[in-house]
From TrEMBL:
It comes from the Bacteria. Its EC number is 1.1.1.100. Residues 202-376 form the Ketoreductase domain. Belongs to the short-chain dehydrogenases/reductases (SDR) family. Keywords: Oxidoreductase. Transmembrane segments: none annotated. The keyword Oxidoreductase applies. This is 3-oxoacyl-ACP reductase. One of its GO terms (molecular function) is 3-oxoacyl-[acyl-carrier-protein] reductase (NADPH) activity. It holds the Pfam family adh_short_C2.
Amino acid sequence: MADRYLHFTSTATGRFLTRRTGLPQPAPLRRWTLESQSLTGPVLHLTAGDSTVTDRLGAILAATGLEVRASADRPAAVVLDATAVDTAAGLGHVHAALHPVIRSLAPGGRVVVLGVRPSPDDHHQAAAQQALEGFVRSLGMEVGKGATVQLLRLAPGAVAGAESTLRFLLSPRSAYISGQVIEVTSAAPDPVADWAAPLAGRIALVTGAARGIGAAVAQVLARDGAHVICLDIPQAREDLVRTADRLGAAALALDITADDAAARISAAAPDGLDILVHNAGITRDRRLANMAADRWASVIDVNLGSVLRTTDALLKTGTVNRGGRIVATASIAGIAGNNGQTNYAASKAGVIGLVRSLAPRAAAEHGVTVNAVAPGFIETKMTAAVPLFIREAGRRMNSLSQGGLPVDVAETTAWFAQPASSAVNGQVVRVCGQSLLGA
C-alpha cells in the first residue's frame, strides 16, 4: 500500500507545512537497485584516540571499492574507530571527531561507530564502551534526511571478519536499519569469489516463501546467486509456484508443522542446505482474556515449535551443511510486546532465545551460524489491513518516520547468509527504522 504521507512530504508544499507544524519529515530511502548499487560520495575514516586497528580497518574499507578519505565536505558515510576509547574522558574524542562533520552528512548517509565489547574486568572501559551504545541510539534519532547510525562491536582480532558487515552497513541494502548494535566475533570469514554474487553455488530454503517477506527473501537470495527452494503450505501452492517460477527456483508445498517436514526438506535438498531461512509465521490476534487455546497453540507451533523441531532435525542429520547459515524471523513484538498479541510476541521472543542459545553451539559443533532478523512495521498486505490510525502510528514511530519494505528484511537476511559473514553469529538485528518501541 502506498505511503501517501511520505509522497506528500516530498513535495514543496509538504516540506513547508511539515516544517511549520513540526510533523514528521520522512525522507525517501535509497535502496539497492541495479542502477544504484552503492553509496555516492566519499567515506570518511576517522579515529577516536590511539587505535591499534586503524590500518587494518583502512585496508578493509578500501577493499569495498568506496572512496575513503580523511576529510570531505559532503561525506556519504562516516566510519569512526572508537575501539580505543576506554575512559569517560576518552569519549571526548568521539565528540571531537563527529561534531565537525555530522551536519554535512549527505542525505541517506551512513554513520558506523566501531567499538569493542564492554569488559567485565575493567569498569572504566566498560562504562566508556557502553556509553557508545547510548550515543549511537541518540544520534540515530538526530541525523534525519534518511541517514542511519550503527554501532559495530569487534571482538579481539575481528577486523577481517567485519568486512561483510561493513559492506552491508555502508550500502543502500541497509536503508531501513538504524540504531543497531552488532557484534562481530573473531571467526575467520569464508572467501567470496564475487561480491556481486556472494551466494553463488549455495543452496537456500526459505519457508513461507509464497508471498510477502518470504517471497522477497527468496528473490534477494536468488539475485545474489543462490539456488532457492521456496516452501509454503499446500493451500498457497498457486502463489508458491508462481514465485518459484519467476525466480528459477524450486517449489516445495509443505506444512512446516507436519511430523515429516524435516524429512521432506532433506529429500528435497539431496546436496544439503547452505542457507535455512525460517520465515513462515501466522497471527491469531486476541487479548489473552479472549484468546481460545487453539489460537494460542497454532501460533506457538507455527512460529516457534516448527522452527525448533526442523532446526534440530536438519542439524542432526547434517542437512544443513558445514559453513551453513540459519536465519530466523523474530519481530519487535517479541522485544517490546504488542497489545492483543501475547501468543505472537511469545513465539517471536522464543525465536530470539533460540538464536542466542543455539548460536555458539551450532558454530562449535556444526560450523553453522544462527542469527535473526526482527522486523518492525513492514508494508505488506497484512499491515495494509490495519486500521488507518494504527497503521500511521506504526509508520511514523521510528527514526526514519516511515514503514519498511519486505526487501529490507530480505537484504538483512542475505547479509547474514553470506559466506563472509562467518563472524556474525547469535545476532538479532531489528529491521525497523529504529522503532521507538522496545530496546
